[in-house]
Amino acid sequence: MSVDSSDLAREVEVLRITKDRCRHARVSVVREIPLTIFLNDREIITLLCTGAHVENLAIGFLKSEGMLQHLNNLQRVETDKDGQTVLVYTNEPTEMAEKLFGKRTLTSGCGKGTIFYNVLDSLQSQPLKNQVTIRVDQVRKLMSELHKRSELYRRSRGVHNCGLATTKKILLFRADIGRHNAVDMIMGECFLKEMDTSDKILITTGRITSEILIKAAKMKIPALISRSAATSLSLDLAHKLNMTVIGYVRGGSILAYTGGENLIC
Amino acid sequence: MSVDSSDLAREVEVLRITKDRCRHARVSVVREIPLTIFLNDREIITLLCTGAHVENLAIGFLKSEGMLQHLNNLQRVETDKDGQTVLVYTNEPTEMAEKLFGKRTLTSGCGKGTIFYNVLDSLQSQPLKNQVTIRVDQVRKLMSELHKRSELYRRSRGVHNCGLATTKKILLFRADIGRHNAVDMIMGECFLKEMDTSDKILITTGRITSEILIKAAKMKIPALISRSAATSLSLDLAHKLNMTVIGYVRGGSILAYTGGENLIC
Lengths: 265, 265
Description:
Two copies of one chain form a homodimer. By secondary structure, chain A is α/β, with parallel strands linked by helices. The first copy, chain A, folds into two domains: about 5-30 and about 125-265, Cytidine Deaminase, domain 2, CATH 3.40.140.10; about 35-105, Ubiquitin-like (UB roll) (Roll). Chain A has helices spanning about 55-65, 95-100, 115-125, 135-150, 150-155, 180-190, 210-220, 230-240; strands at about 10-15, 20-30, 35-40, 40-50, 75-80, 85-90, 105, 135, 160-165, 170-175, 200-205, 225, 245-250, 255-260, 265. In chain A, the strands form three sheets. In chain A, strands 2-1-14-13-12-11-9-10 form an eight-stranded mixed β-sheet, with helices on both faces. A four-stranded mixed β-sheet of chain A has the order 4-3-6-5, with helices on one face. In chain A, strands 8-15 form a two-stranded parallel ribbon. In chain A, helix 8 (about 230-240) links the parallel strand 12 (about 225) and strand 13. The longest helix of chain A has 14 residues, at about 135-150. Chain A is elongated and about 60 Å long. At the A-B interface, strand 2, strand 4, helix 1, strand 7 and helix 5 of A face strand 2, strand 4, helix 1, strand 7 and helix 5 of B.
């Protein structure tokens, strides 16, 4: 199945705050889907992606991982109707793939290993109860503080910054080449210190994708603030889990993607 | 072992091109290390990260993935001398962790599963033979074209753009929420079409980390151009593999991290 490029973003209702105005608006968010790849009927992995060119993505992933060697060995590639499963058939032994995939390296851009759908199911039955109310000037001040604290970013331009915050200040600050790693460092520290995070805010320079939202949900953190944009799947989850997602905090602008009622203009 | 924040970036020699000058300079690049996490003596994963707060990262990763449930069950955490291995011991059954980790979801920020060190070893014995020579004005024109082609980025601000190019034009363009996915789509298409990529350039909006460099090396692509910064590990590999890394192409500025002799000012 091919995906029309117009399907790769969708319009959502947001509250848009500019320097002196606060109003409802519609913005585009990029599509995010879980794409599961099977090799010779064995489930290999679920990638979170935009959903375009899924067959090339599956082939490229398998090739990149060394699970597919020669084009002659490729028998066929099938995509199911909803475009979320790609089945690849080869006449190369699959055991090699499994062996290669036994020890995985996760990238700077991630830190994942969940059984995606199980996690979704269990989280969706537990919407967060707490809410955090925050003023627009506090959002701007937190983002400004996040930037100020990252000497490493200013030096190298190579990291994402992340903080655990109250409405008034950043309590924990971490920076890493991986936006997921920065969140995991905070999760680890909170777990070790038995910190209650259910009244806190997670603030990040990275985009808000489904995994970042899921990590926050696991910590019962009710609100996320990002310098960057959110994806469609993260917003679907945020609605279901009763979470506030405030994004694109930059240059005086703020978008409340979800939970706009918790943002005081 | 704790890491001093001053160790998290290192200075490298680059060729810095501004609007009217081309000179040698020193810039900071962020540290990137492979961190391997063991749970009860079983190897779980290798994360690519900056190397700070590695114990919190390991604990947060295991907690986030559901492999660590209660603080009471945590027995001890050890980090080896070089700070690249964390050993976590619990009295929770490890089989659960393995079951949970049987089917993994990789994130938008990645598409990985290599046995990291094996890949490094095999790649390092095969430095690329081809080189691509490119003029500064061509670099700027390619980056400008990459931006122009991404209607999805302009609409949603939620994707990374990636292209396979000659010095004169972009041949293949892909955008995805994951910078690794965008590269894998290109790899898949080139593999299926049996395209020779050994004289091409990979151009991306994303940072150049080790995995992006490794994916390019596997395609024998000798040169990378990025709008963003590079990491220490990607540059170490680029030197060994004889690859050109041109980064931070924005606002008239360009940094040739490696292969400066292939950039014509």
